[in-house]
Prior knowledge:
By secondary structure, this protein is mainly alpha-helical. The mean pLDDT is 90. The radius of gyration is 22 Å and the shape is globular. The chain has a domain at 18-57 and 132-336: Growth Hormone, Chain: A (Up-down Bundle). Helix 8 (146-174) runs antiparallel to helix 12, helix 11 (212-231) packs antiparallel against helix 12 and helix 11 runs antiparallel to helix 14 (301-333). It has helices spanning 7-21, 24-35, 41-57, 59-67, 77-99, 112-126, 136-143, 146-174, 180-186, 188-207, 212-231, 235-262, 267-291, 301-333.
Amino acid sequence: MGFVPSWGYLALCRVLLGAFEAGFFPAMVYIISTWYRRHEVQKRLAVFYLVGIFLGAFSAVFAAALSLLHGTYGIAGWAWIFIIEGAITIGFGFVAWAFLPGFPDQNNFLTEEETSIVLQRVEKDRGDAVPDVLTFEKVVRHLSDWKIWAIGLMYMCATVPAYAISLFVTIILSSMGWSSLQSMLLSAPPYVFTAFTAMLFSWISDKYCRRAAVIAIQACITLTGLCLMGFTPRPGWRYAGVFLASAGSSGCVIGILAYSSNNVVTHTKRAVTTAVTVSLGGIGGIFASLVFRQVDYPRYMPGIYATIGCQFLLLFLLETTTVFFSYKNKSILEGTATEPLEGQEGFMYTL
């Protein structure tokens, strides 16, 4: 993308980048969820996700510094951003090839005794330490489970404000009266705040074994931030809204990933669930890019309204799944259930 001669080639490269990158995030979430017990996973997902968020906090600042190379070797400043950041990414790709672990039963960095301990912990927690065989029939059966789609839609709703802020934060800040350079510099602090709060809520969620309540709190934080961004005239308060909307939405993204992985059994269903959830998150990114339109500058009210609506839909779906999970758990405790939950004896849904 740094050496293309026209926008057409740039668009083609961007399509290829998206196609090859698409599997990375769901694959990493899937692998992480297979290594830990259910109430250990959110902190680990948070660390993985927030490393990207924290580095992203300074991406605009880094991009601003790289743009100062404009004209060096006859290359434009924007092209230097793609070239240098792309080279760094490729370098980490080689590192990942050498060191990235696979599934617990296939790892090559633990001893047999250590691997056995990992597998025993997972097996005792949910009974799916060893991968099952993926078949077309299983994929169809998993895709017919309404809970996967409900949680996937929740994830989509959470990603809309997260993507909107990620894609348009500098534009949103410039609409508050700051210059382009000031907007790029001011885009970093909200992400630092996001990293801290999301890690805190993840720790609370794991410690107290509660997913839905923590997600609901963070969705309300997102709503508060969006209202400040959309309905207050003062730039300072609107900037505070960016902090809250970013923190709440990113926290919801992590919480919903944990909520999703906690309530499925078997590797195949975990794989299908993760793929559906993250794919719908990508649709949330498309949605965000369409509702925050340049013609609505500087307030972007249609985008604000749409994003607020998504948070209410998230809360409705969260209540629906939580009530269902609670009812099913109660039927197991009272002995009225006709079959084990998720086909696994002793399994209970995480609320």
